[in-house]
Structure formats: structure tokens, C-alpha cells
Amino acid sequence: MAFDGFTTAALAEELSDRLTGARVFRVIMPENDELLLTLKPMMEKGGGQVRLCLSADPSLPLCYLTDTNKQAPASAPAFCMLLRKYLQNGKIVSVTQPGLERSIRLEIEHMNEMGDLCRHVLVIELMGKHSNIILLDDKEHTHIVDSIKHVSAMVSSVREVLPGREYFIPETQGKRNPLSETKENFMAALQEEHVPAAAFLVRSFTGFSNVIAEETVFRTRLGQDRSVSEFTKDEQKLFYNTFEAMLEYVRNGDFSPTVYYHLGAADTLSQGEPVEYSAVPLTMYRDLPSRTYDSISSLIENYYQEKNAVTRIRQKSQDLRRIVQTILERDVHKYDLQSRQLKDTQKREKYRLYGELLNTYGYNIPEGAESAQLENYYAGETVKVPLDPARTPQQNAQRYFDRYMKQKRTAEALTQLTEQVKAEISQLRSIRTSLDLSTTEGDLAQIRRELEESGFIHAKPQKGSGRGSSKVQKGRPLHYVSSDGYDLYVGKNNTQNDELTFHFAKPTDIWFHANDVPGSHVILCTGGKPFEQIPDRAFEEAAALAAYYSQGREAGRVEIDYLERKGVKKPSGARPGFVIYHSNYSLTAKADIKGLRLIE
């Protein structure tokens, strides 16, 4: 998933077609390394407004057209003010890509303070950690006016990116421009290299990512591991012709932006995991499901929005997961300690018996005795009772009664405490499972709220609803449709489980849950039909959902309890997601949901 020269070429062509002649209406910097240009294209090119997002983020450099606006900071950074001076109200004259470099140049014509016509060039370099946005002068476009990131000689010995310095694209380790490569040079290079064909392309030419190089070799059917020096004359010719065929996509502007997916257990692209995207067809992934976009900008925007969302959700869930795991480990340790203490109190009845026997037979015990053999009239046997020689039998009896009462009180308190801690452990394990099922910020917000309301973490102060504040959309249960057309709903956390079971489901709907393991509540909506009229396949598919969205997913097959919703009760004061039921059916289900359709 590299932003390579082919993707850049597709983007440069799209920007050229759409933006040549457009006016720069607005310039803002939403982030320290990001620009958003609001542009007004010519009427013959669609008119209206469009926004060009340029990001020099070292981890995710991007460039794409979008309709989405962003909030400008309260005060514009110096680089933003500079661009407004030189570019605002200017006209884009051309959009070009030097060779097959990961760089796009926007030449913008504008009037300066003296009314003279000037042309500056805005360069976006999409080169990983070396990404930058640079404004070049209005003469030969060879010197830097300023850049969004300054790079001094202390940071880079190859090129300084500072105002007044000469601008050039750094030498890329001797790589050549593939668009100007001759057949003679290509064939000669094959004789000198002793590397696999894909590595040869990546090392020798700009714009070739590992994916495009592997695709080129895949089309030759020469094998990914063979060294280019081993190719025969015919194989060399085939390799060169395939190389040229890949470049024809760029020369002819024949792009088809596509994302390829691996579905796994999922049944829709929205659930699937993207394997790769490309501006040109990848025949090596032809057997995978794919989604083709009308424009490379749409692909980039949607793909990276999804990727950012997944990354953000994963990061936020990891933060909550660490909190939950820490509290869970503490509670498990506390429960083990309390359980051992509670076990120690089980001998309290022995102390009560000793006290009673001493009160009954104490008059026969000689003074200063260290023990006494007394008859246990409850069991008809003799019991040896240890004594403190410094105390009288009555004092020894009172000491045993005191010890009995102390352990009785301890047992009563520990019984209550262990039940509370056990309930906490059950809830935390359920929350941990819910974190695995979370797909939106709304889901995580509900989990955080549950942690706050349960006293596990402190509540965050609520921000005001003024400008710039955002409201997180409430998380919702998953909605599937069974093979027989029945609606199936799955709660992704305890809050959704309670809402689904006790506020959404009808009394005659069927409720499913994995037996004795944390998991989702699943509701099979019957539409008022009697229990007996629901087809077996609907029960099996609902049970499969309950198995898949539970902690027992990896076990393969999970025991599932099910019954009519009216038989499920929530005790007063019970923790979120906790329910009880006394009469249910059971079946064993496989955690496989491939045949189910998710409603998006």
C-alpha cells in the first residue's frame, strides 16, 4: 500500500484535468503539516468549489481532491500567511509530475503588489518521512521561497530545504526515470545485476514500488525469485516488453484505481481487510474481491479515512484495554486473596465447639493443663482441645468463642466482598470482549461511559458545545439478515446489550448468548411468529452470531443458550449486561458467519 510513482501519475493527471485554470479561493493549514486549498474550477470543467488536501505527514503523506472542509486554526501559521500572499486569487496554470517521481508541481499565476504578473510553483513531495510542501520562486523556479518543514544541513547532508536555497529533487540512489529508459540501457543493466527481477525494478527506477514491481514480474510468469542475470535473451525481451506495458498505463493515462480485499470470515467489503490498492490493475490479486473507484482522489480519501479510523479505534481501544487489564489483574489478585481468607474462616465451627465443650466439662479439667480430652456429644467421639495453661477453663472457652465470632464476622464480610469482586471480574472480562468488537468511536464512548459509571475510572470533564467541538455518534448494534429473511441484531458492548434486550426486543423475539463466557446478546426478531414456526436455519445462524461475537470465538464451536426474550430478567441493581434466566434451550454453534448479510 505504497504511494508510488504510478499513484502519483494518476493523481497528477486527475488534478491537471480538473484544476488547470482554477482559481485559488482560500488557503488554510488545519494541521502543522497539512494544507487545504479551496479552489474554483473553470465552468467548462464543472465549476463550483473543490478542495485540494496536501499533507506532508511523515507517516502518511497524502494529496487528493475532496469536498470535505476542515476547521482553520484561530491564528494562521507563517507558511500559511506566505501562501495567501503569493497564491490566493491566483490561477493554476499547470499540474505536472517530474518523470515518475513521487512529486507534483502546481504552477500558479498571480499578480504581485505592483500589479506585475508572476508565476510561483507549489511542490508537494510524497516521500515518506522526507515529505514536504515547498513554494518556489517566480523566476526560474529553482530557489525555495519557504516550505512547510525546514530541513537544515544538520538534519540532512543531501539537501537543505530552507528559504533562499536552491531547489532540486535529491538523487534517489542512482535510480533512473523509467519513462525515458531505452531498451539498450535496460538490457545492459540486466547483465550487470544479480538480484531478483522485482528487486531490480525497485532499485533501478523511480516510481516503482514493491507492489508494482511484483505485478510486472507476475505478468511475465518468469518467477519472483529468479535473478535477472539468469534470463535468456527471449526472457529479457519479455521482461522489457512487460516493463514497457506497465509504463503505457502512465503514458496513456489509462488508470483504474482499485482496492483489493481479503474477506476472511466477513461477507462484505466493509468488513473485509484491504490487502492492497493501486492506480493500475493488479492481476496477481484478480481472485480477490475488489472495489474500483471513478477517481484516484476518491480512492485515496476513502481508503485512508478508513485506515485512519481503524488506527484511531485501535489506539483508543488499546488505551481502554490497558486500563481494563490493569483493573482486572488487580481484582483477580484480590479475589484469590479473599478466597484464601474465606477458606481459613471455615474452621470457625471448631472454635465454637471447643468453647461449648469447655463450658460443659471445664469443672473436671485440672488447673494448668495444656489440653483436655473431652467428649463431643454432637458426634459421639472424643475431641482433644488445646488450652492456655495460664487461663482457667472458662477463660479458654471465652477465648474460643471470641475467635469464633471474629471469624464469623470475617466470613460474612468476605462473602459479600468476594461476590462483589467476582461480579467486577465478570463485567471487566465482558468489557474486554466488547473492546474486541468495537468498530466505531461511539462503541468506545459507550464502553468508557460504562467504566466511569461503574467507578473503574474517573469521568472526563464534558467539553462545551462551542465552535470546534465534535459530537461522537452513538454506537449501534450490528444488524444482520438471515438466509430466511429474519432480522438479527448483535450488541457490541454491555450498554448495547441492555438496550437491545430490554428496550428494543419484543417479548416473543428469541434471545441468544454464549453459555458461561462473555459475549454479545443476539436477538432474532420473529415478527410475532410462534417459536415453533421459526425455521431451524434461523436459530442456527443466530447462534453462529452469538458464538462469533463471544470470547469463545477461537474455540470454533461454542455452546449457546437461547429462549424467548420474555424469559430473560435483569436483577435490580445488576451490572450492565448482566441477566438471569431459568429455563432455556441449548445448541452448539460454529463461530462462522460467512453466509450472513450485514446491513450497513
Count of DSSP strands: 21
Shape: elongated
SS content category: alpha+beta
Instruction: State the major sheet.
Output: 7 strands, antiparallel
Number of helices: 12
User: What is the helix content?
Assistant: 25-40%
What is the topology, as strand order, of the major beta sheet?
20-19-17-18-16-15-21
The mean pLDDT is 89
Over the alpha carbons, how many angstroms does the gyration radius reach? 36 Å
Low-confidence residue ranges: 464-470
Strand composition percent? 15-25%
Description:
- The chain is of the alpha+beta class and 600 residues long.
- 36% of the residues lie in helices and 20% in strands.
- The longest helix is centred in the middle third of the chain and has 49 residues, at 296-344.
- Mean pLDDT is 89; it is low at 464-470.
